[in-house]
Design a protein that fits this description.
The complex is a heterodimer of chains A (462) and B (462). By secondary structure, chain A is an alpha/beta fold. Chain A contains 13 helices and 16 strands. The longest helix of chain A is centred in the middle third of the chain and has 19 residues. Chain B has a domain of 308 residues: Alpha-Beta Barrel (TIM Barrel). Chain B is 27% helix and 20% strand. Classes of the chains: A alpha/beta (462), B alpha/beta (462).
């Protein structure tokens, strides 16, 4: 009952308004699936979904036609790892940040969804630069577990959540060591203990229906029922006395242990990456994703063999700490060449507001192909790394991130090549709904565009 | 050679002036050594070189297609079209399909004083023990082995940079301008003949840092402390001016006041960290009261609101392309700040303040260029290069030596492997004082800091 009610609610939230057929004609179309751009392509969307994209796609006569000649048409960019919607002003503006609970009692049980504010001004600014979805993770505070992250859309409405509690986020590198009391060894013991405590409660959890449940149907089949409401915390769920986690936190890790919720693990150092790969062998049911992986290229073959996807920070080339000594721009390309499923996120970077830099970084990876001794990626692959690849990393590739038919209609029209900073966004659709591109910034721009004194102060101009 | 000779000549003239004074009743003033940590930088040897067939942006707004540039004896010998005379035996560089620009100059860097890895042992950028510390000199914190210098060179095409103290203090201390040439000592990197700068700060940072450490704790407190410090400096200056004129007993020396006296004498340039328009206007009045000139407002996120005032006052703004909202005083940042300041006839500079951003200032300029054009300000690519070259050179007082491709200036030159406003472009070669300091095709022409020797990824393309 709960499940069906929730499903209905999610379906309602996901249903786009003003759904109709829109066709984009004559533009250079990039599908976002790794293929190279198609000149003179057509994209057709209807009822919030992509109907088709490519050359000579038929469309109904009454469709709204967007003339994209001279333009580029792509899927919306997905922020591969972010804290978007959790922070209005990052420093010294109390009340505006919700990315971590420094003095709170909970860790793994934390769910970022209620904290996401779709009216945060960071959302329209990124939307106006072609970012349409974001993977949003909480930050760790006093535990290695940060809590459960969500996938959001950047639409101008009050329903930002695409997939709630999509993953748990854990720190097992330098940050993990610090939150675990001061060492990586401690972090690993805490991690194993947490899974032990979860496994105690697992006896009271619902059975895993099938291994395939986790894929691709977030709105119809929410993968995790709210641990805060589950009978996992009821009177029958007896626990041993030897526990460190609160009952809520332990309960929140049950779906991780069952492989029903992704586990994003932040590590950078090569040896830390290998420890994560070992975890996969120790707990085969974990659905692991490595986040960061600055030194991934040095152990790329082993990551590839593990099948664990990586959401990397593309722009790391400095030994900014001792877990990133081998940092290089070639990390992404070398992992990709070794067969690792790589996407780009904003880990180790400004994760609350500059998500629009992902397209710049993707362009830089393309440019690397011209640098002797470096390893870049093709244009199509670079575009995929900021669209379909992050969606695939957390099992939403069937829904999001490309212009393949059936995907959610997140479409951006650009004035030129989207991986060039000299190109701007002309128009954005999310779930098939055309989006406003006005922001606080554009309003300030227009107020101060002309500084000639007027009959009234600037405060009267808007 | 010429430059060093000139320095000696000036010193000799000063000595002669003292010797020739009429015999005073009191003992003659003993001159204070104003350069106790002199530059030991020497240009490395370079071969006479000609680059042919490139698109040249001269850094002052000019463009030459199919251009020729000749470098000889550390200087730019000639710049022109295909008919430019070339000395026999010059090394030929094929510039077809490539771009030549003056090296990028970053007016705001903390390389060396906040080096990588960014661990506590390396935190040397803020003498946050009292709000007025004009006695400290950034060069005494610069670690020449910061791996960031090499990234700024090889990825960023940065040939000179100003390293500033941080902004915790109202008076942060003296800055230093460096050639981006590796050396064992900071003296070995100091830009010969570059004036010192004084880092000042307004706004949030000083009041945050000192709010619980005896103040100032408010913006009005910031201004009061700043004014009081300048008043002390005026007294000190009178005392020392009199001594230097009349001789007698040498007054007590005060390192802090020495720096401020240098500012009041016009020898040290003021670099004022300031975000908000209203605060910049207050600092302008304050500078007038104290008797100094503000050279450059740094960060200057709201310069667009008072671009007319800044143009009238002849004050440069050093800005980011799109940073905003990371604290409240940056909340009103707009993407058109740089072009709007330029449009008003004020001096616009793209700066980094960041070890990553310094590697792609050209791309940041591209963003500003595109956003300006979108807002109707149509300027050429070549004109926009001023934001990276002659304007920062002016702000640092070195525009007579570098910052544009004019015959006789230092041969600080970048050959880019494509259009430098493209994300796909990187430096192909970089010359500093005519010496080839980076060549993408030659792994031996890529600096590797001591710190990176023997570490994973040593000598890798970063």
């Amino acid at each position: 009952m709960i499940r069906s009610a929730l499903t209905a609610l999610l379906l309602a939230a996901a249903a786009p308004l003003g759904a109709q057929t829109v066709v984009f004609t004559g533009g250079t179309v990039a599908l976002g699936d790794g293929s190279e751009p198609i000149p003179g392509g057509t994209v057709v969307i209807r009822d919030g979904r992509v109907v088709g994209a490519g050359v000579g796609i038929p469309f109904p006569r009454d469709a709204e036609v967007i003339d994209a000649r001279g333009k580029w048409v792509t899927p919306g960019i997905i922020a591969g790892f972010s804290r978007l919607g959790l922070s209005e002003v990052d420093l010294s503006a109390e009340g505006t940040t919700d990315d971590k609970a420094q003095n709170g009692p909970f860790s793994a049980a934390i769910d970022v969804a209620p904290a996401i504010n779709p009216l945060t001004t960071t959302i329209p600014v990124n939307r106006a630069d072609g970012v349409t979805r974001a993977i949003v993770a909480p930050n760790v505070a006093r535990s290695i577990f940060a809590g459960q992250g969500a996938v959001i859309d950047l639409g101008a409405d009050m329903d930002p959540i695409t997939a709630r509690r999509r993953f748990q986020f854990v720190e097992l590198g330098e940050t993990g060591a610090a939150t675990a009391g001061g060492s990586r060894a401690s972090a690993h013991v805490l991690f194993r203990n947490a899974l032990r405590e979860a496994s105690e409660l697992q006896r009271f959890a619902v059975a895993v229906s099938s291994g395939g449940d986790v894929e691709d149907r977030p709105e119809r089949d929410p993968i995790v029922r709210d641990p805060n409401e589950s009978r996992l915390v009821g009177p029958n769920a007896r626990r041993s006395e030897d526990v460190l986690l609160t009952r809520f936190d332990a309960a929140a890790l049950v779906p991780v242990l069952q492989g029903r919720q992704y586990l994003l693990v932040h590590v950078e150092r090569a040896s830390d990456i290998l420890q994560v790969i070992r975890l996969k062998r120790e707990f085969p049911s974990l659905k692991l994703v490595i986040v960061g992986a600055t030194e991934g290229w040095t152990v790329a073959d082993r990551i590839a063999a593990s099948g664990i996807p990586v959401i990397a920070s593309a722009a790391n080339d400095l030994p900014s700490n001792f877990e990133q000594l081998a940092a290089t721009w070639s990390n992404v390309g070398r992992m990709r060449n070794a067969g690792v499923k790589v996407s780009i996120g904003m880990i180790d970077d400004n994760d609350t507001r500059y998500l629009f830099n992902q397209r710049q970084y993707a362009g830089n990876l393309v440019g690397l192909q011209k640098v002797p001794g470096a390893t870049g990626v093709s244009w199509g692959e670079a575009m995929a790394m900021i669209t379909s690849a992050p969606a695939e990393a957390i099992g939403l590739g069937g829904q999001l991130g490309s212009l393949r038919s059936g995907k959610r209609a997140d479409v951006v029209v650009w004035s030129g090549d989207p991986l060039e900073m000299t190109s701007n966004v002309d128009a954005v659709w999310i779930d098939g709904v055309r989006q406003p591109l006005e922001t606080r910034q554009t309003k300030l721009r227009d107020r101060y565009r002309d500084l000639t004194p007027n009959t009234l102060p600037e405060a009267y101009r808007r | 050679m010429k430059r060093r000779g000139a320095g000696i000549a000036v010193a000799a003239a000063l000595l002669a002036a003292c010797a020739n004074s009429p015999p005073p009743k009191k003992a003659a003033a003993i001159p204070v050594n104003e350069d106790p940590f002199p530059s030991t930088y020497r240009a490395y040897p370079g071969a006479p070189t000609v680059i042919r067939g490139a698109t040249i942006y001269d850094g002052e707004g000019g463009q030459i297609d199919n251009g020729t540039i000749v470098l000889a004896d550390g200087a730019i010998a000639a710049v022109g079209g295909p008919d430019t005379p070339v000395p026999a035996g010059a090394v030929e560089v094929d510039g077809r399909g490539k771009w030549v620009t003056p090296g990028i100059i970053d007016v705001h860097s903390h390389l060396g004083d906040y080096p990588s890895p960014g661990v506590e042992s390396h935190s040397d950028g803020n003498e946050a023990t009292a709000p007025a510390r004009p006695d400290v000199w950034a060069e005494h914190s610069v670690w020449p082995q910061d791996p960031g210098f090499s990234r700024a060179l090889a990825n960023g095409g940065v040939t000179a940079l100003q390293v500033l103290p941080g902004s915790a203090n109202l008076f942060g201390g003296r800055s230093v301008t460096l050639k981006n040439v590796p050396a064992r000592t900071v003296q070995g990197m100091k830009f010969p003949g570059a004036p010192y700068g004084l880092k000042m700060a307004c706004g949030e940072n000083p009041k945050r840092v000192y709010g619980n450490k005896g103040g100032p704790s408010t913006r009005m407190g910031n201004i009061a402390t700043t004014r009081a410090t300048w008043m002390k400096a005026a007294t000190y200056k009178r005392k020392w001016d009199k001594y230097e004129r009349d001789g007698g007993d040498m007054p007590e020396r005060d390192l802090a006041m020495d720096t401020l006296r240098g500012v009041l004498a016009g020898k040290i340039l003021v670099h004022n960290h300031c975000y908000r328009a209203d605060e910049m206007a207050i600092m302008i009045d304050l500078s007038r009261e104290a008797g100094y000139k503000i050279g450059t407002f740094h960060h200057a996120v709201e310069s667009y609101k008072i671009a007319d005032l800044l143009a009238k006052e002849g004050i440069c703004s050093a800005m980011w392309a799109d940073w905003w909202g990371f604290k409240l005083e940056s909340y009103d940042g707009i993407k058109e700040n740089i072009p709007f300041v330029d449009k008003a006839g004020a001096c616009a500079i793209v700066h980094s303040d960041d070890p990553n951003g310094i590697q792609r200032l050209n791309q940041e300029a591209a963003k500003a260029l595109a956003d300006g054009r979108r807002a109707g300000y149509n300027i050429s690519d070549a004109y926009a290069w001023r934001w990276l070259a002659i304007n920062p050179a002016r702000a640092l007082g070195i525009a007579d030596k570098t910052g544009s491709l004019k015959a006789g200036k230092m041969a600080d030159v970048v050959l880019w492997n494509g259009n430098p406003f493209s994300t796909y472009t990187r430096p192909d070669r970089v010359w500093i004082d005519g010496a080839l300091m980076y060549d993408a095709a030659n792994p031996r022409l890529r600096p590797v800091s001591d710190f990176e020797l023997g570490q994973p990824g040593e000598g890798d393309v970063k």
